[in-house]
Amino acid sequence: MEKLSSRWMRLPLVVRVVVVVVAIGVEVFLIAQYTMGGSDSAPTYVSAQSPLRGAGIELFPPTGGYRSVRAVIVFFGNDRGFTRAHRRLSAGLASDGYAVVGVTLAPLLAGIPDDAAARTRPMQARIDALVSSAYAEFSAWPDKAVRDTTVPLVLMGQSLGAELAIWSASNSVHGALRGVVALSPAPRTALRLPSLVVDSAGTNTTDSFAVRDLVRTAASRPNDLRIAIVRGSHDRLRSADSVIVSAGGLHAKVFRVPMAGHSLARLAIVGLSSRRALNWVLESRSAHVRATAAPSTR
Questions:
Q1: What total number of domains does the chain contain?
Q2: Residue 165 near residue 180, CB atoms below 8 Å
Q3: Residues in contact with 217: Cβ distance below 8 Å, sequence separation at least 6, in sequence order
């Protein structure tokens, strides 16, 4: 190492500057290939299925010449809607061969009872119908006559949408569901559906749910669900991650986004962390079993 350092310092300054500039350029290029990389405009693809033609539903089929779908992703937006950042991330995932269904929460939850006890069944029924339609649409991509039931399903969301994705996974009966990619979930959420008011502190404890409890329930499901938490390193809620991951055991993992806050909206590198999380969720179950069952080398 000392010899390399000495040789480096003996190089002319101009050569060292050129090498550094080229290295930075290569790094930026590689990051750009694996970050959001998509358009922030609304997609133009339209489904023939009525559940996927409703208000607040945006469809991102695989692009780039993919002849099959790597996974179907249902992506819930936050309390502000399905934002520009969500579209960019969805378009980037579509360019990697994923089919993404973007969901604005307000239309999805319109008319659902606000009372916690009364809303569970109708809310899950509405989400299940949407998820089933999304899977039916894209598990047969691009040949609508041939459905591939081995295509995995993933729920995804950001902030409030992340909490809803975890909630849905803990209640879902869809056999293809492999897990959740949750961007910036709060540790506890009290949800007022008519206005989508979120109390992340969970001050109304009689009408809130703890994310750790939902993760524990989802992780105990027999189909080996995985829950990936994507969290900015500067997110004020990051201290809750240890409790959330502990509840999920080997089925939960945190993926950090350097220099990012709770919104994750301004950094393209969010796409890189999201892809890493998605790859982990979709890892081969047999590989996961072999890894956890491997004998100790101590």
A1: 1
A2: yes
A3: 170
pLDDT in tens, 215-232: 998 888 877 899 999 999
Q: Is residue 25 part of a domain?
A: no
pLDDT in tens, 231-260: 999 999 999 999 999 999 999 999 999 888
Dihedral sign, Cα of residue 286, residue 288, residue 293, residue 294: positive
User: Quick check: 57 and 86 in contact, CB under 8 A?
Assistant: no
Is residue 190 a part of any domain in this protein? yes
Q: 195 or 125: which carries more pLDDT confidence? A: 125
- Please give the Cα distance from 227 to 250 (Å, whole number): 9
In a domain, 273, yes or no: yes
Lowest-confidence region among 8-12, 20-24, 144-148, 204-208:
204-208
* Domain of residue 77, CATH code: 3.40.50.1820
CB-side exposure of 214: number of CA atoms within 13 Å?
24
- Bridge partners (DSSP) listed for residue 199: 190
Contact assessment for residue 227 and residue 218, using Cβ atoms and an 8 Å cutoff: yes
pLDDT digits (tens, 9 = 90+) for 168-179: 998 887 889 999
Residue keyed to tokens 């939960």: 252
